[in-house]
Design a protein that fits this description.
Blueprint lengths: L2 H12 L5 H74 L7 H14 L5 E10 L4 E8 L3 E8 L4 H10 L6 E7 L2 H11 L13 E8 L3 E7 L5 H48 L7 H14 L8 E7 L4 E8 L3 E8 L4 H10 L18
Antiparallel strand pairs: 1-2, 1-6, 2-3, 4-5, 5-6, 7-8, 8-9
Helix pairs in contact: 1-2, 2-3, 2-6, 6-7
Amino acid sequence: MNQHLQNILNIIQQDENITEEQKFAVVKLLKEADKELEITAFKLDRTEKVKRTTAILLEETIEELEQKRKAVEAQNRELEIESSLERVRTVAMSMNKPDDLLGICEILFKELKLLGFSDLRNTLIHTFVDEKNYFNDYDFSEFTGGCISRIPYSGHPVIERFINQIRKNKAAFVETVVNGKEIEEWKEFRKKNGEADDPRLDHIQELFYYHYSVGAGDIGISTFSSIPTEKQNLLKRFSNVFDLAYKRYIDITQAIEQAKEAQIETSLERVRAQAMAMRIPEDLTGICEVLYAELHSLGFTEIRNAMINIHDDEKETFVNYDYSDEIGRSINHLHYNIHPLIEKQIKQIRVQKDSLKHLIRVKTWKT
């Protein structure tokens, strides 16, 4: 029995002024009250247990829902990333010429911005030309647009450090920070190399570069603040996509070089055929004409004329066989001392049988 009810019961039973009949009635009421209290306590205890069980279940449900929410978010994020990678992959695999790398920079910039690279300055692709100690820099940002520059391996400590690190192995990752006095020097170096002017560099204290190697090239970004490991890993995934595209770039470059070499050989064969068909000295102008046409087809767009000179050192004269689209074929008999430039040319070209004459700039020269 409840202790308080028991105390009341004891007092009543000891009270002689209360009749047995009254005591019996009170005891009965007290027992009923005790029974009701026990039932109420039982119900309260059961309710409390139900509440605790419900709270635990609710907590587990909330945790499970949170895990599911995070899983859905992660899945959606992964789908978003894969869509971006696929768009970059599509542009990369549609490359037809080396300069299309600039288009990959552009799509990469847009996709990284969509994926949360809020402090992104630009996207970069480099192709290394080790035998000539320079790399081609393909650069894009929404602020400066696209730009292609040729950057020497030496000339600035930042570049020299970068080259030493990125060329160590095919899977190299390089993080470069330009800060302090280097910022002003870096701006001058960029300007010297013909890179796009970016006034935003006038208002910063630090600039961050992140590059992943793909063998004979790399892909990277620059940002106005450091990026966390998560974003570095994401950039790595884009570099893996670009790795496939870079193989295509190599194939395209080799195909262009082979086609160019074949074109050169064809041009040489045409000049050779014309030379072998010579019958009289005047036919040298025909060789000049073919040479002019073939050089023009090979990209000598600024060529004025093609000529062959036959020297007579004893008489200090030479016969000039000449052809250009403007004047056609011409044959001129000239003396070594007709003009100071001619004298200089003769001295240089007659040094040895197989010499290449140095460039002579002429503003006005009429003969």
